[in-house]
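Q: What does the assembly look like in three dimensions?
Context provided by user:
Components: two
Sequences:
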Amino acid sequence: MVDRRESVDRVVTGAHYGLRDWIVQRVTAVIMTIYIVLLTGYVLLHPNMGYADWDALFSHSIVRAFTLVFLLAMYYHAWIGVREIVMDYVKSAPLRLSIYVLVIVSLVLYVIWAVQILWGV
Amino acid sequence: MKFKIYRYNPETDEQPRMQDYDLDIVAGEKMLLDALLLIKEQDDSLSLRKSCREGVCGSDAMNINGRNGLACVTQLSSLKEPITLRPLPGLPVIRDLVVDMTQFFKQYNSVKPYLVNNDPPPETERLQSPAQRAELDGLYECILCGCCTTACPSFWWNPDKFVGPAGLLQAYRFIADSRDQVTSERLDNLEDPYRLFRCHTIMNCVDVCPKELNPTEAIGKIKYMMMKRTV
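A: Here is the predicted structure of the complete assembly.
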């Protein structure tokens, strides 16, 4: 008789993805770097910025659009990074999937929130 | 010279322990393996693997003062006392400094580490230009000692799924070989979030390799080739 209480964990690999995420991780990093350098440069060149100055800066559609691109890049970057960590440390597949769903839902909510903030002021 | 050596017999011991040894020798030109063999003369219950004594066979890989390396090519004089020796991390211990390398070789075998060429064998040999042959430098020298793979945190977390630096270096060795005909299948075999993309360029592998090879660079080249065939 086979003792079925002993669990048999079959190791499966071969999902055939990963390359796109690896490329996206790098591309989003470049986008974030450009944005951070430009914004930091702007702030350094304009000391003593008040609310009115920020408001004026973000009234330009291009600033809003680029900020949104930066945030989208960051969220995508964060998604890949968080998933990598979860893949390493969370061994149970159902738990892993639940965490993925939770992370994706929060990031989608962040996108909606970001749009609301950027076009709300 | 003072030594602290990991002792464990899974069949009889409940817990591993660190045993102290004292050797009355001068380091001089001696290698760590020489000292270990002298210790074994004192206490023949100590288990370790060794064979060629000159860094070619890769049998005596172990964790030396917290860093993986080959005992036979590690100068005693370069080590701080007490010299702490443990088995390679991340693999099951069979006895003392001897580990079970099954998982390591399973991953190695999974990359088909042999030339695949379906043409009829030529009269003499399959010729390569000097440039094609040069592609294999830094890849063919691997002795499969396991220092790199067992120093890799990604391998510690997923030894059953991540091929590991040694296996991936060998995978690239055959991808880079002009005589091999199944490059695309080899890339298909590796295009996986676990098998290849668990590598997060931590570079412990490069740091510890006793043959001074660069698995991280080889892994980067595999990723580059994948990107090239995609875009």
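Follow-up: Chain B has a mean pLDDT of 96.
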